[in-house]
Design brief:
heterodimer, A: mainly alpha, two-stranded antiparallel ribbon, elongated, B: mainly alpha
Chain lengths: 152, 411
């Protein structure tokens, strides 16, 4: 049990550090009023997604880091869950925006009302925001929630 | 049969044994998260994230329907068709119902989009259905979800300390958020506040600083990049003037007790009922006012009243508020429809800062006619008091925003 907990602690410590770094990067990029893209990562530079969103990603990282000590205690564990919830909120909003942008053709006068299949699929191609990249890693918390429920 | 005290205690013990389970209470994850969301240090980041999600989904959903489909439907099909089939092009009825158009080189020119045509059947319908409907649907859906999950009471607890600084308490978040959908139910919801002082402060702040869903929807459509600044000015104004009102309005601002329920999975039937009820309520109140407002603005323009008032008040608008002379017309028309006024402002050439100032002025200007009527229902003394405060706020805050612009070198 202790061994499994220490794996979780190391995992969420690393995730916390990466998430905090992404949050700080979001804020710095927004402060520089420019966008940043590298490989599959894209950091938005606008005040809403980059600034406000960056603050939320930063908080998510801090929740992860503050929750790793005494991981098995319910209040500490709930901080880890809250960190993941913040990532889910951010990533959910980004994915919802992708979906709404991928369906209409955005033609003003003529042409089809809906996007072509290739453009529709292309809308989901990378680069992605930090929250979307962090999403699969944040889902690991679901395993620990289930495990805790089974133990009770 | 009369029982002795001992017999009653025995009966109580018997019932207790059958109904109460004794044991050590273990905190669940839901309990722990519930506790964290009301503590400032951990609750504020969650509140910031919830508000982010609210506006992000609002923007994506409204943009999907308005810019993705309705703009094209109205501008490329509805407007040209009406311009062609409606009789009397260039006449006053045509101008009021379809297209006020413009004069270029001495000739009447038709508008090419519904935001510039200002007709009841074009701008009026476009604003009501193309802009306001998607905005209101998603706004009330999100609000119903937050209520049914059990987050709203937690937000009330979280913001209680801050709202006490302006003479209100945590419950004031309910009329405030409701007003972001429509000011009319917002004003009605001020009745949940206990004292006259609180109700007056809340009603005045709602009428001045809280833009309704229709206005937010149109702002999102025509000035999306400036939304953040406009809302920031309104939030700052809400707290500054709330603080001042708390100091000068006599009366009490009592504490409040609230039962914070556990988090719950929302029920679809509840959500559907709530959203449907609110949307139909909104449309019964707002749609007639949107169309009537568009008609009245058209009539006043045709009679030259708005031009006359605009010319007369232009020195105030240009000198005191620092906005172009052309904004005087829309700002006067804002009394009838704030959403239409924002649409009118969007086609006037001005700097970013002037646009921010002009849209903030539209917001803090007289409440729309529907809200005005609702405030009158709450009492004419309160209405007169709110109007007096509003007049002072428009000039003081409008001038202050201009001054900030001058100091920053952007006005």
């Amino acid at each position: 049990m202790a061994g499994k907990s220490s794996v979780a602690v190391i995992y969420f410590a690393i995730l916390g550090i990466v998430t905090t770094a992404f949050g700080i990067a979001d804020i710095l990029v927004t402060a520089g009023a420019s966008e940043f893209a590298y490989g599959i990562l894209e950091i938005p530079g606008d005040l809403f997604r980059g600034g406000w969103g960056g603050v939320i990603v930063l908080f998510a990282g801090l929740f992860y880091l503050s929750g790793i000590r005494n991981f098995d205690e319910i209040h500490q564990f709930s901080k880890i869950v809250m960190g993941s919830i913040l990532i889910w909120i951010m990533a959910g909003c980004d994915i919802f925006a992708m979906i709404t942008e991928s369906i209409p053709s955005w033609e003003e006068e003529t042409g089809p009302w809906f996007n072509t299949l290739s453009d529709f699929i292309a809308a989901y191609a990378p680069p992605y925001s930090p929250a979307v990249l962090l999403l699969p890693f944040s889902l690991v918390v679901v395993y620990y929630i289930r495990k805790r429920e089974q133990e009770i | 049969m009369k029982q002795t005290i001992d017999q009653r205690w025995d009966l109580i013990d018997k019932i207790a044994k059958q109904t109460i389970t004794f044991g050590e209470y273990r905190h669940t994850l839901k309990d722990a998260i519930g506790e964290f969301t009301v503590k400032p240090l951990t609750g504020l980041p969650i509140a910031i994230a919830v508000m982010y999600a609210f506006w992000s989904i609002f923007g994506s959903f409204a943009g999907f329907f308005t810019d993705g489909f309705f703009v094209r439907l109205f501008d490329a099909y509805w407007l040209p068709w009406l311009q062609e089939v409606f009789p009397g092009q260039g006449g006053w009825l045509y101008a009021i119902m379809v297209d006020a158009g413009g004069i270029e080189g001495g000739e009447f020119v038709l508008s090419d989009n519904c935001l510039e045509s200002f007709g009841v059947l074009t701008s009026g319908l476009f604003v009501a259905i193309g802009v306001v409907l998607p905005a209101i649907v998603i706004f009330y859906l999100m609000l119903a979800l937050l209520e049914d999950i059990g987050y709203m009471p937690r937000l009330a607890v979280l913001i209680d300390t801050m709202l006490h600084k302006i003479g209100l308490h945590g419950y004031a978040i309910v009329p405030t958020i409701l007003s972001l959908g429509c000011n009319v139910p917002g004003v009605t919801a001020t009745r949940i506040l206990e004292t006259k002082k609180q109700r007056f402060i809340m009603m005045t702040l709602l009428a001045i600083f809280i833009p309704c869903g229709a206005q937010i929807g149109i702002m999102q459509d025509v000035v999306p990049g400036l939304m953040g600044w406009i809302l920031l000015y309104l939030i700052i104004g809400y707290f500054i003037f709330g603080y001042i009102l708390n100091k000068i309005v006599p009366g009490k601002a009592p504490e409040f007790l609230i039962d914070v329920p556990p988090y719950r999975r929302p029920m679809l039937s509840n959500i559907v009922k709530k959203v449907w009820g609110r949307i139909t309520g909104f449309f019964k109140v707002a749609i007639p006012f949107v169309l009537l407002g568009a008609a009245m603005v058209g009539v006043l323009y045709q009679l030259g009243v708005i031009r006359f008032l605009g010319d007369a008040l232009a020195p105030v608008f240009v000198g005191w508020f620092g906005v172009p002379k052309e904004t005087a017309g829309p700002l006067i028309a804002a009394f009838l429809r704030k959403d239409l006024a924002v649409a009118q402002l969007s086609v006037i050439e001005m700097t970013k800062y002037q646009m921010i100032t002009a849209v903030v002025l539209v917001s803090i200007y007289f409440p729309c006619v529907a809200t005005f009527a609702m405030m009158l229902k709450e009492g004419w003394k309160e209405l007169l008091g709110a109007m007096a405060v509003l007049t002072v706020v428009v000039f003081a805050y409008g001038g202050l925003i201009h001054l900030i612009g001058i100091l920053l070198g952007v006005a």
